[in-house]
Structures are given as structure tokens and as C-alpha cells.
Input
Amino acid sequence: MERRHFISTSVAGAVGGFVATTLGDGSDAEAAQPSAATRALNALKAARRTETARNAGLLRGVYHSDAIRLDPASVTPIVGRAAVAERLGGPNVDRQLQYFYYRQPRTVVEGNTALVVSNFEAGQTIGGRTVEDSGKTAAIVMLGSNPPLIAAEAVVPNIYAGSYGSRGTALARPRFGRFPLRALPQPPVRAATAAGGGENDRLFSLVRRINQAWVQQRPQDILQVSQGGGTNAFLIGDYSPFYISGREDIQEHFSDFYSTGRVNSIAEVNPTVKIFGNMAAVAFDFDLDYAINNQQRRAPGHALYTFTRSGGSWLMSSCSATHLVLAEIGDPYPLPSG
Output
């Protein structure tokens, strides 16, 4: 049975001047003046409705001129309003979005900018066949415009999404491949050291600092440079079917990982930095060398980290990273044996 409504509970809190809220369906709030968090989520819902209409012209009206999107359909970030609109609603797109439900959304608002993090369920028609899946998403929404504009988006799919989707369709075998090695520089892959100078370099340096704390098994260093000491920070990746948020859950996540695994190195390449008022997004590719149960693995991928400016300093708000892209543009996943 198709589910036509966005359902979640309503919880609100404030930490250090930032508002973090889990949104309900908005019916009571929208009867009065909608809150900033409601406006941000409504902007994302409107974009998905426009995407189902496959109207690239209208999609240009809901994205910022300098928008950036991390998407499993592309091995490079999609940059610019026109490029994002064409990717989602252009005539050459070979898949038609049927529905997209934001589940358990959380919104962090600073001034006229909002970060929305959510789980999602989605359904698409590909070659006349309905394909349903799920995942996580993070988005920066600019609230100073009317209507609000989407400035940055990261879509991280779940490789295992359940047994059936919202329309009762049995979920097919995973349609994802591994982020291709050909998208990285020739080996040995060396981390980039700059991202355009000035504030861009400062933000990219913070990305590398966060990743090195992961390598050095120092999650406390990540929390120190996170919004609210981790209270309003989010981790979004392939390792969980849901986003991870809050200081305690983030610490638990790293503790569990280090009990069986370690990161030997991570090289960040091809950085793209976009600054939107009090928030910023840094997209990059990476080459990850790690071990689980003493089994060495190499896992290339791409990521989009978001940051919030607080007291003149940038603090991490969300880390979205994935090793997955659509099968037709990726390497085989899982890797063939031998």
C-alpha cells in the first residue's frame, strides 16, 4: 500500500543558540507561521515533488545558483543550478522518480541557513520497472530567499534496504557498484593539500584534520571540532542504514569500529568547496585503506562534509561518505573473489 504522508514525531531542543528539531507533518505549524525548520524541510519536499514531474525548468527555481550535489548517479559532484536540474529532471534522465519520503528528519538552523539530515525511502521507474530503495541524505537550505533555495545535497544509498518498498514492490538485488578506481588519480594516490586558497583551504584542512583523527583512533578530536561538541553533529555512511547523531552515539560508533578494525590511511583528492553564508560544503573523493578483523581492504569513495560558522570558526555539522555508485558507472561490488 502506498504511503502518502510524511510521518514522524516532534521533538525540539536548543543548544548554544542552534535549533535542532525532529519535525512532524507540519500541519499545526503551517496553520500559523511555519518555523525555519519546517520551511527548510518543505523546500526539500517541494524539490522532490518537482523532480517527480520531471521539470528541469522548475527545478532550477528551487536550487541555489552555486548548488552542489553528491549523487550515486555521478562519480563527480554535480555543481551549479543548471547541472543539478538537468541531472534530476532533464529529458535524457533514464529514471523517473515516483516518490521520495523524508523519514526522521532533523534540522539545525543558524541564521538564514539550515542543515536538514534525514533517512529516506524512495521509488523510481527504470526501464518500465519500479525500483524501491532507502538511504540517508543531508542538505543545506538557504532560508533568506522566497522560496528557500537548496544549496547542497548528499544522497547516500543503503545497499541493503529491506524486503519490500512503500508500494509493496519486492526489493531487487542491490543495483549499486563500487566507486571506481578510475575516478582517482594514478597510484600512489596522494592527498590534495589545497582547495583554492583562503577560506576554501581552511575548510579543506578541517576535513583532513577530521579524517586523520579517524586514522589515529582519536574520535574525541572529531567531537572537539564538531557542532555542539558532537551534540548537533551527524555521521552518514554505508556502515549504517540510518544516520548517526549526538555525542554518545558517535562515540559508540567509533568504539565499535575500533574493536575489530583500523584505518591505515585515507587520501582526500579532488576537493570542491562551496560557502553559503554561515554554512559550507566540502566535496571530495577519497582512497581509504583499512582493515577489519585483520583483513586488509581498499575502498575508494566520495564524500560531502558540511560545516557551520560559529564565533568566527568553522565546526563540522555532518560527514556524508559512501563507497557506492550506480552499478552502470561503478566497479563490481562486492569485489570478485581472487
